[in-house]
Structure formats: C-alpha cells, structure tokens
C-alpha cells in the first residue's frame, strides 16, 4: 500500500506498520512481517531478507548497497533457479555484482529481463503499487507447488491429485469447466529439465478425477522414468460456462453423480474449512493439501 500523505492521520511509516501488525494480531490472532520501501520491489525484498527476523524492516534507495547487495542472487524475489545458474556462469553471485555489471551485456544476454535485473539491483522499480483493477475474464484455473523434498514417480501422483482437486474446486466455484488440461513437471536441482504438456478432451469438465486421469496420462507419456521431481503444476484452460456444457450420459459411469460429488465436497469445505473433508491420499506423506492449508499466500502465518 502507498501511505504518502497519511502522516497527520496515522503517523509515520513505522507507526503505521506497527498499527497494521497489531490490528492483524487482534483480529485474526496471527503475526506478520512487514517490509517498508521507496517502491514495492524494495518493500518486498527487504521483507523477505530482513523483516522475517525483525518483524518490520525498511529499505530506502540509499540503503540498497548495505541491505541488498551482499545477498546471493537466489535470495532475491524474482530470480529463479534457472536464472541463478545463468548468472553464476557469468560470474555473478550477489545482487551487488549485477548492479555493477555492464548494463549493455545484461540487456544483450537476457533482453527485457536483463534490464529489469539491472534496475532492480539498484532498487529501482517504476511499476505502480496499484495495478489495473478492471475486471478481466478468467482464462484458466491452475495450481502449482514447489515441493519441500524430491518426489519419486510413485509419490507425485498424490501431489497431482491434490492440485487437481484445488484447480477444479476453483472452476466449480466460478461456474466454469475446461476442455484443455495442462501438466508441468520440473525435475530436482541435481537433474535439470522437465516438461510441460497439455491435452484437450471432448467434453469440458471441472470434475477432479477427469482432470487427474488426463494429467496422469501426460505424466506417464513424457516423464523420463528416473529423475526426481521438485515442482508440479496443473492447469484447466479453454473455459466454458458450466450451464452451457451438456452432460452426456455414459453406460459405464454416472457422470451426473461425479459432478454432484464435487459440489457436495465444496459445500462441506466452505462451511467447515478447507481441510474438513479430504481424500485419503492427502493424509499420506506425499499429500500437499494439509501443508498448504497452514500457509497464507505461500507463507507460514
């Protein structure tokens, strides 16, 4: 949030941050970390690097060299594992080294992303705090997770099922069904690579097991058979309004019942909480739903 001009009403930026923390604690019973910066990039980065230990941290433009430059590039928001490896090959290990690298070479090597890396290394972010709040039509429903350990091919099926459950729940809530199902797999750091594939089906669906069956087909077709897995993503795209989708009768399965089961499970979760009713596999070591339910925005409360 931008707090410029609010000093007379609520105090300075530190006083406002403390009031926000207290209000969240009083209302919800949870603690939080707050980053303060001259732009939203600095606020986000100083929160990740410092505020999680001190609860509140601040980084102004003049503090960038001291508070951000010494940290490894992989500790900075926006730099993933692949970018980290590319930077390491160039001899760049810390954010300070990016800031002092030749802008033209970064631009030539990474294009627009290289420009962003350079300006972020100097703490410069010109994007507005508030984006475009115009309502846009939802194009897809997807969920991904960076796993806390390497998963084998036996474990990953449970993870895929949990993610399909959440993606389909969101689609049902929005009254949508999708014709194209996507699966993305990234291997562990010791084995670079992975794959991302999609497949379209005849009848749009928001049934968890329909989506799961297609994802498992894609996994068995494109998985290399031996690499450990560290990131999984599923997606449901090519959306249709649910009321426009005809449920074709099938002699071998009750499609109406399959649809109803999903909506009943959603109603139970809406009333009693996201973990009130789960599939048995979610309670195994490979399940991810229980662990995800303990986080807010990907972070532990």
UniProtKB/TrEMBL annotation:
Among Pfam families, the record links this protein to: IMS (PF00817), IMS_C (PF11799), IMS_HHH (PF11798)
Residues in UmuC domain copies: 18-80
Q: Which family does it belong to?
A: Belongs to the DNA polymerase type-Y family.
Q: What name does UniProt use for this protein? A: DNA polymerase V
Record's InterPro entries? DNA/RNA_pol_sf (IPR043502), DNA_pol_Y-fam_lit_finger_sf (IPR036775), DNA_pol_Y-fam_little_finger (IPR017961), DNA_polymerase-Y (IPR050116), PolY_HhH_motif (IPR024728), Rev_trsase/Diguanyl_cyclase (IPR043128), UmuC (IPR001126)
Q: What is the lineage of its organism?
A: Bacteria, Bacillati, Bacillota, Bacilli, Bacillales
Keyword Nucleotidyltransferase part of the UniProt annotation:
yes
Recall the GO molecular function terms of this protein's record: damaged DNA binding; DNA-directed DNA polymerase activity
Q: What is the species of this protein?
A: Oceanobacillus polygoni
Q: Which GO terms describe its cellular component?
A: cytosol
Q: Tell me which UniProt keywords the record has, alphabetically.
A: DNA damage, DNA-directed DNA polymerase, Mutator protein, Nucleotidyltransferase, Transferase
Task: Kindly list the biological process annotations in GO that this record carries.
Answer: DNA repair; error-prone translesion synthesis; SOS response
């Amino acid at each position: 949030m931008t707090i410029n001009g609010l000093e007379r009403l609520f105090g300075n930026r530190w006083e406002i941050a403390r009031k926000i923390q207290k209000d969240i604690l009083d209302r919800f019973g949870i603690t939080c970390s707050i980053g303060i910066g001259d732009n939203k990039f600095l606020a986000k980065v100083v929160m990740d690097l410092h505020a999680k230990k001190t609860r509140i941290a601040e980084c102004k433009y003049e503090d960038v060299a001291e508070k951000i430059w010494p940290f490894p590039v992989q500790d900075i928001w926006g730099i993933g594992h692949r970018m980290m490896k590319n930077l390491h090959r160039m001899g760049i290990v810390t954010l300070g080294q990016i800031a002092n690298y030749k802008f033209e070479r970064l631009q030539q090597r990474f294009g627009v992303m290289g420009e962003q890396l350079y300006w972020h290394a100097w703490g410069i972010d010109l994007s507005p705090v508030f984006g475009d709040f115009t309502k846009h039509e939802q194009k897809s429903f997807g969920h991904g997770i960076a796993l806390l350990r390497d998963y084998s091919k036996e474990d990953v099926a449970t993870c895929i099922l949990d993610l399909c459950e959440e993606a389909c729940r969101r689609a049902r809530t929005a009254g949508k069904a999708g014709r194209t199902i996507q699966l993305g797999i990234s291997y562990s750091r010791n084995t670079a690579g992975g794959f991302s594939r999609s497949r379209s089906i005849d009848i749009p669906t928001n049934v968890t097991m329909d989506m799961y069956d297609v994802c498992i087909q894609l996994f068995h077709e494109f998985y290399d058979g031996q690499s450990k897995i560290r990131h999984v993503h599923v997606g449901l795209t090519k959306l249709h309004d649910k009321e426009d989708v005809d449920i074709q009768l099938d002699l071998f399965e009750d499609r109406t019942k399959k649809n109803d089961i999903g909506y009943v499970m959603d109603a139970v979760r809406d009333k009693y909480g996201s973990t009130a009713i789960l599939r048995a596999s979610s309670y195994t070591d490979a399940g991810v739903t229980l662990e995800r339910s303990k986080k807010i925005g990907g972070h532990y409360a």
